[in-house]
Amino acid sequence: MPKKSKQEKKGLFNKVLTRVLAVAIVAGCVMIIYTTERDCAGKERELDSIQAKIDAYEVENADLQQIVESDDMSVYIERIALEERDYAYPDERRFYDTSRD
Fold it and tell me: What band does 84 get if pLDDT is binned at 50, 70 and 90?
């Protein structure tokens, strides 16, 4: 009869260990799924940002392509000088509001 009690204890220990191991595996899988979903959401936001940049570059590229094909570079040069380089015409007067500084 003592042999059965030893087997029952041994079986009980195996059942508890198996349950703990199963719970740990399930918890690990849940954590992996959560981390993967969070990473996917971050990558989707990054993809949207990159796609917006691509769209902006395509619009700019189309404008530049139109200027190159028109063989009239003076319009492009004038736009760059006025907008990006902040140049002015010789007879142009510019006034700047310095009170906001």
Answer: confident
Please state the rounded mean pLDDT for residues 44-51: 97
- Cβ(78)–Cβ(72) below 8 Å: no
Instruction: Say whether pTM exceeds 0.70.
Output: no
Instruction: Write a three-state SS string for the chain.
Output: CHHHHHHHHHHHHHHHHHHHHHHHHHHHHHHHHHHHHHHHHHHHHHHHHHHHHHHHHHHHHHHHHHHHHHCCHHHHHHHHHHHCCCCCCCCCCCCCCCCCC
Q: What is the DSSP letter of 72?
A: -
Biggest alpha carbon–alpha carbon distance for the chain: 114
Tracing tokens 């392509």 back to the chain, one arrives at 65
Could you give the C-alpha distances from 25 to 31, 37, 87, in angstroms and in order? Answer: 10, 18, 67
